[in-house]
Amino acid sequence: MDRRFAFLIPPHFGDFLAGFLDAEAHLGIAEMNGGTSLSCFASVKVRDDETETLEWLAAWTGLGSLHAVRARARRRVGRSAGRLGAATSA
């Protein structure tokens, strides 16, 4: 890690982020451009009462965007942060 930016990361943030993404995220790799390149992404869905955590995370990291998602049968309305940290490679 570049030590110039170490002061920006709160202690134990990595532990929190790993646990949060492990519990709430879908990590994926999708083909793009007819299969000539790949896109890596994380999609996170949480209930409305947990939206504040997702808003904080998106604001703090500067990654992703939030979208309201309609509830499916027997599920609560929630928020989705799509394509957090999307990166492409050729």
Tally of discrete structural domains = 1
Give the helix tally.
2
User: Largest beta sheet, briefly?
Assistant: 5 strands, antiparallel
Strand content: 35-45%
Distance from N terminus to C terminus (CA atoms, Å) equals: 25 Å
For the record, the CATH architecture stands as: Roll
Q: What global shape is seen?
A: globular
Q: Quick check: average pLDDT?
A: 76
Low-confidence runs: 84-90
CATH class: Alpha Beta
Structural class: alpha+beta
Question: How helical, in percent, are the residues?
Answer: 25-40%
- List the helices and strands in order: HEEHEEE
Tell me the CATH topology: Endonuclease I-creI
CATH superfamily label: Homing endonucleases
Write down how many β-strands occur, each being a DSSP E stretch of 2 or more residues. Answer: 5
Rg, Cα atoms, Å: 15 Å
Keywords:
5 strands, disordered C terminus, alpha+beta, 90 residues, Endonuclease I-creI, five-stranded antiparallel β-sheet
What does it look like?
This protein has a single domain, classed as Roll (Endonuclease I-creI), CATH 3.10.28. It has helices at 13-24, 51-61, and strands spanning 25-32, 37-47, 65-69, 78-82, 87-89. β1 and β2 (37-47) form a beta hairpin. By secondary structure, it is of the alpha+beta class. The relative contact order is 0.19. Strands 1, 2, 3, 4 and 5 form a 5-stranded antiparallel β-sheet that branches. It is 26% helix and 36% strand.
